[in-house]
């Protein structure tokens, strides 16, 4: 399935993850989990997720990766088996209809929403707006599929992350405090109803290129509305 790309300083492509992406996705999630745990946030296991947690998402076609055409700073890493040269995507996100039954009840009408899981952005691209762009794309995908909301859960004690989701248009629904779950802060945002029949096009934001020793150049991150074939299938 082709994915639209933009001619950027660093070209980024949003595409559905393939089985060959498994180790790269695991590496990105492990790096992100290590960074979170270093901040004292225990939402994800410190070493990342085992393959059996991520492989089904790829097999089901609900895991997406944002990748570069030419590679990016730190785009390879050692995988869990100690092998080198694993290609690490710039970002990853899973979007599906699975409502965690420990958090979302029948009163929430779980079928009215799509749900975000495993959103992670490489630290090399921190602050570039990729997370916001992917969440915006996911909200459009929810609208195209006739869902009225996009939902997610995050760590109960991560005020910084919760503020990020609020800035991205989410509202706090409630916090479910289960002793065996670090997550439990529930958020949702409305799917853009005006776009459900035919997504409108808009210009992507200008953001700085990834951190490096060179001068910063503006680039367009990701025009989420060009990826209609990923929304509709």
Give a structural overview.
A seven-stranded mixed β-sheet has the order 1-2-5-6-7-9-8, sandwiched between helices. It has a two-stranded antiparallel ribbon with strand order 3-4. It has a two-stranded antiparallel sheet with strand order 10-11. It is an alpha+beta fold and 233 residues long. Helix 1 (22-38) crosses helix 2. The protein is globular, with a radius of gyration of 17 Å. The model is unreliable at 1-9, 79-83, 194-210 and 212-229 (pLDDT under 50). The chain contains five helices and eleven strands. It has one domain (12-229): Gcn5-related N-acetyltransferase (GNAT) (Aminopeptidase).
Summary, kept brief:
This protein is an alpha+beta fold and 233 residues long. It has five helices and eleven strands, in the order βααβββββαβαββββα. α1 (22-38) packs across α2 (51-59).
């Amino acid at each position: 399935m082709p994915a639209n790309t933009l001619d950027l300083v660093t070209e980024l492509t949003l595409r559905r993850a393939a089985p060959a992406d498994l180790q790269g996705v695991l590496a990105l999630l492990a790096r992100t989990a290590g960074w979170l745990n270093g901040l004292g946030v225990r939402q994800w296991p410190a070493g990342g997720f085992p393959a059996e947690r991520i492989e089904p998402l790829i097999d089901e076609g609900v895991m997406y990766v944002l990748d570069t055409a030419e590679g990016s700073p730190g785009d390879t890493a050692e995988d869990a088996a100690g092998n080198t040269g694993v290609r690490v995507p710039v970002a990853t996100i899973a979007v599906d209809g699975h409502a965690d039954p420990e958090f979302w009840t029948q009163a929430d009408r779980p079928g009215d929403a799509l749900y975000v899981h495993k959103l992670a952005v490489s630290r090399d691209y921190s602050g570039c707006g990729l997370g916001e762009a992917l969440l915006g794309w996911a909200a459009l995908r929810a609208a195209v599929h006739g869902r009225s909301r996009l939902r997610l859960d995050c760590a109960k004690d991560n005020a910084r992350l919760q503020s990020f989701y609020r800035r991205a248009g989410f509202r706090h629904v409630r916090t479910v405090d289960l002793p065996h779950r670090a997550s439990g802060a529930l958020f949702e945002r409305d799917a853009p109803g005006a776009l459900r029949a035919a997504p409108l096009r808009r210009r992507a934001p200008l953001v700085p290129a990834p951190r490096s020793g060179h001068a910063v150049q503006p680039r367009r991150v990701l025009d989420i509305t060009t990826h209609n074939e990923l929304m509709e299938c």
